Amino acid sequence: MDRMQLPAISARAQGLGTENAFVVLAEVNQLIRAGRDVISFCIGQPDFPTPVNIQDAGVAAIREGKHGYTPSAGIDPLREAAAREINRMRGLAGPDAITADDVVIGAGAKPFIAYAVLSVTDPGAGDEVIYPVPGFPIYESQIAVHGAVPVPLYLREARDFAFDPDELAAKITPRTRMLILNTPHNPTGGILTRADLEAIAAVLRRHPQVWVYADEIYSRLIYSPGGGEANDSDNAFASITQIPDMLPRTIIADGASKTWAMTGWRIGFAANRTLAPVFTRWVTNTDSCASQISQWAAVEAINGPQDAAAAMRKSFHERRDLIVGLLNEVEGISCKTPGGAFYAWPNVSEACRITGCADSEEFRKRLLHEAGVAVLADIHFGSRVPDEGQHIRFSYAASNDAIRAGIRRIADFIARNRK
């Protein structure tokens, strides 16, 4: 019997991008199930359990019957806690500081990328959104699928993976509706300094029609420059909201996933006085609300003891220094010291040449299948930046032993495969 022809899938759905970390992870898991020994650096999530006090708060919420819908904007205690934390991290105070009414809770921070694009652009109008490349792949995916025009803004290795403000100025047109900033940055680990942000703000003041989407999910994972003791009791996080005139037009996106190892709990939040009611309607139209159980756990995450979060951060700092030091000892690899998050973005142009690999993607595949090391290639984070060479991404959310063993395997692979 002939197979019945099914209705067509939309061009929008067929063109929807993905997050290749999960694609590579599936490949890694398949190899592991087949008995292969693979050390994985491909997934960007803390390798620690959620702190026990936060787990207990989630269990208590279940036992107390907190199982139902909440308001779409989130429960008041979490909106209040998030507002306090946003203000504390960014030094915001006075009448312009973020209030609970300015905050919307989501099922992770990721949905707010879509909500922001949907809230400030119109399909078919030619509205443009500028986003960083390399960058979190969901930026480009969500811009395009919702009918806006993605405009890449290239991050430069010579600028410690920041961008040239003059390049930003050249990209802005009368159709530009939003600029996405991500600091600390995925995939490079780079940060935007106060000087960077002041230069960006100077450009934006000439273009009042442009919103700013400040993806600051790694805001509490900033480390001291260079090596040295990982004493991170304080950090130097800089946000564009600290620059005069920028807060009202900035959407602050943050959440619980990275700081408190709560990726699977799915709690994020966004803050903007004007757009909070709009985001609330988007939540109503999509998820209804974030999990009530997870929201109560996030209240404890923000308000409770911070010892576990501080210990995780200290460990990430130590791992950063370890992996950068080891990578820079490998023939053909050079790696800048990232300022935050838990990613390293080494330049492997010479390693590709030495081993006869055409590019970073071939190098990545051979590392996986011949050396048993899983990383991501630069093309998984947007089009390769012109004249910037070849790069791969390591997530150093892995043990020190795994880092040492993985880098040793890469060094051995290069030595064995010299052309």
Can you tag this structure with a few keywords?
419 residues; alpha/beta; Aspartate Aminotransferase, domain 1; Aspartate Aminotransferase, domain 2; 2 domains; seven-stranded mixed sheet; 14 helices; globular
Structure description:
With 419 residues, the chain is of the alpha/beta class. It is built from 14 helices and 12 strands. The chain folds into 2 domains: 11-48 and 308-416, Aspartate Aminotransferase, domain 1, CATH 3.90.1150.10; 68-305, Type I PLP-dependent aspartate aminotransferase-like (Major domain) (Aspartate Aminotransferase, domain 2), CATH 3.40.640.10. Helices cover 38% and strands 12% of the residues. The strands form 3 sheets. The chain has a 7-stranded mixed beta sheet with strand order 2-8-7-6-5-3-4, with helices on both faces. It has a 3-stranded antiparallel beta sheet with strand order 9-12-11. The protein has a two-stranded parallel ribbon with strand order 1-10. The longest helix is centred in the C-terminal third of the chain and has 21 residues, at 307-327.
Write the layout of secondary structure elements.
Layout: H1 11-14, H2 20-33, E1 39-40, H3 52-63, H4 76-90, E2 103-106, H5 111-120, E3 128-133, H6 137-145, E4 149-154, H7 165-171, E5 176-182, H8 194-204, E6 211-215, E7 250-255, E8 268-271, H9 276-285, H10 292-303, H11 307-327, E9 343-344, H12 349-355, H13 360-371, E10 373-374, E11 376-377, E12 392-395, H14 400-416
Parallel strand pairs: 1-10, 3-4, 3-5, 5-6, 6-7
Antiparallel strand pairs: 2-8, 7-8, 9-12, 11-12
Largest sheet: 7 strands, mixed
- Would you tell me which CATH topology of the largest domain applies? Aspartate Aminotransferase, domain 2
Compute the number of strand runs.
Answer: 12
- Strand portion: 5-15%
Main CATH class of the largest domain = Alpha Beta
Radius of gyration: 22 Å
Number of helices: 14
Shape: globular
Q: What structural category arises from helix and sheet content?
A: alpha/beta
Q: Which CATH architecture of the largest domain?
A: 3-Layer(aba) Sandwich
Number of domains: 2
